[in-house]
Structure to design on (383 residues):
């Protein structure tokens, strides 16, 4: 009898686990839809979608507030019934109108209640890392997030916000160079009108596995740094130090172990705590993804900073990841989605693509996934 009961349990357990994961995946889908509503409500109020990262005021030099690298997930809080949390941060605005310091350092007790307390709407229930603990402690703790923002099929200019020189990407939904100055949009942000490929054909957000606090060789949540070179220069590809052919997407794919596809083939140059580190700080490694390599692929950054690289969407859902389209709908993207060319060379692009060492123009070289990431490539690809 005991043996029979054991067999029945063994037969039922996979079905129970599958049912639980189906419920978690549905909950994750609903959370992405709420983020979509927040983006749309923000657009209704500001006639534009929020910036990828920005401050809300000018600094003493009159330029874009460089300390204000607050992510889009901060700006949409009032439009997701999270106004109280948003007001905690605004309550610490200084006399010059600038938000407090920078979002990766200590804020003090009042603001820390904003930064350090988790917001469950930004958690995917299938990822144990996101709610297991906050990153850091005391005055420098940060609540993490499972959801990341699309930079499209860009592979360069992935810095944050510094006037017009950094983060100049305009291929993805969260356009670079879009920020605030004295409460107003300083540069052009994405609007429905600028989604020339159509809102139903454009990916805005996706999932990512939150990185463990300590360095880990796991592909999901991990980031390989010093890929293709060691420079941290916020500059054009020609001066970042990558040799011709060293920065191909295929080389990042080959950083996966040949004996275990879930880990990198190295234990060095792996970032600890980067992906999903905080929903507050609009730093590309923390909160962005690119539509170059398919979901659950390796993530690789040049140097040790956020200048050039491939940041992959990822999830614990089997076979792919949930993504939010610009029209507010959610679609599951398979990790086998067509990604076109794995040999697009950012330093010396193929003859059919621009030769000025910039992001692609026109149709994406990265297949259906790249087409869904670009907002104005002229593609009709959809899922």
């Amino acid at each position: 009898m005991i043996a029979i009961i054991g067999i029945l349990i063994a037969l039922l357990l996979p079905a129970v686990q599958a049912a639980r994961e189906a419920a978690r995946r549905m909950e994750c889908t609903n959370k992405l839809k709420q983020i979509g509503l927040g983006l749309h409500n923000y657009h209704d109020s500001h006639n534009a979608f929020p910036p990828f990262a920005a401050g809300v005021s000018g600094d003493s030099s009159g330029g874009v507030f460089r300390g204000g690298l607050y992510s889009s997930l901060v700006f949409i809080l009032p439009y997701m019934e999270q106004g109280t949390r948003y007001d905690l941060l605004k309550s610490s605005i200084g006399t010059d109108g600038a938000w407090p310091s920078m979002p990766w350092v200590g804020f003090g007790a009042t603001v820390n209640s904003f930064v350090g307390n988790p917001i469950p709407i930004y958690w995917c229930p299938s990822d144990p890392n996101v709610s297991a603990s906050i990153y850091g402690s005391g005055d420098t703790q940060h609540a993490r997030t499972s959801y990341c923002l699309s930079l499209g099929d860009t592979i360069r200019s992935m810095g944050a916000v510094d006037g017009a020189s950094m983060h100049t990407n305009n291929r993805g939904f969260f356009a670079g160079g879009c920020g605030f100055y004295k409460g107003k949009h300083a540069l052009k942000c994405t609007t429905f009108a600028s989604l020339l490929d159509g809102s139903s054909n454009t990916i805005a957000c996706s999932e990512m596995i939150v990185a463990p606090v300590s360095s880990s060789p796991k592909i999901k949540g991990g980031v390989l740094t010093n890929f293709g070179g060691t420079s941290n220069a916020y500059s054009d590809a020609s001066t970042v130090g990558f040799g011709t052919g060293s920065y191909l997407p295929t080389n990042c794919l080959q950083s996966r172990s040949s004996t275990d596809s879930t880990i990198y083939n190295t234990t060095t140059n792996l970032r600890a705590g980067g992906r999903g580190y905080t929903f507050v700080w609009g730093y590309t490694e923390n909160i962005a993804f690119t539509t170059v390599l398919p979901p659950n692929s390796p993530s690789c950054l040049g140097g040790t900073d956020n200048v050039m690289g491939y940041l992959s969407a990822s999830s614990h859902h089997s076979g792919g990841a949930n993504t939010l389209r610009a029209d507010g709908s959610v679609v599951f993207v398979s990790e086998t989605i067509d990604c076109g060319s794995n040999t697009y060379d950012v330093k010396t692009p193929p003859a059919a693509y621009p030769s000025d060492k910039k992001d692609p123009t026109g149709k994406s070289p990265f297949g259906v996934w790249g087409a869904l990431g670009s907002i104005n490539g002229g593609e009709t690809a959809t899922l």
In short: The mean pLDDT is 74. The first strand starts at residue 53 and ends at 54. The first helix runs from residue 2 to 46. The two ends are 50 Å apart (CA to CA).
